[in-house]
Amino acid sequence: METDPQSTYDRIAAHFAKTREYAWPEVESFLEGRSATRALDVGCGNGRHAELLAARAESVVGIDLSRALLREAATRARERDFADALDLVHGDAAALPIADDAVGLATYVATLHHLSPRAARVRSLDELARVLAPGGVALVSAWSTAHDRFDRTEGFDTTVDWTLPGGETVPRYYHVYAPDEFDADIDNSRLSVVESTVSSGNCYAVVTGPRP
Prior knowledge:
Layout lengths: L4 H14 L6 H7 L4 E7 L5 H7 L2 E8 L2 H13 L6 E5 L12 E6 L9 H14 E12 L12 E8 L5 E8 L2 H9 L4 E8 L2 E7 L4
Parallel strand pairs: 1-2, 1-4, 2-3, 4-5
Antiparallel strand pairs: 5-9, 6-7, 8-9
Helix pairs in contact: 1-4
């Protein structure tokens, strides 16, 4: 069932980046009116959300497990003139190479569901809490059973194929969250929930941290 996310996304990075041109509306809404000195994008992919953060922070760190996706993000940053504000770091969401209390604003979007097992997912949420400064805020998202492609009510593990030009399929591991399970994992972390919603088939939580 499980696949290695680093090799998976290294393999599909170039094609994946071309299909991820635009930021998610939910991320745009979350960032509206918010700013920080330092920001963080966990699982930054091709940098589409790091670009939004760069307009709202003096500096942004984008972290991803895929070096190929980090190269795509670097290219986007140069082409769109936000490279000076962006530092790209190879790293694991469950062991963030970031100091305690270092960031005031963060996004952790469409990445949590690629981690396995559950302990790694909760550990990554604890890591997000650790790096958020007092008063800092973040948006976390994951795929949900509410997505119209699923006919399930409980969370489950699965693989979803990515089809490359030419027809090659590359399986990607997902843990698809039931909304109450998503809320429970955040509750079991050091994060504090400000708001939790489901939108466009994804669970979202606005969170602060750390919780004592």
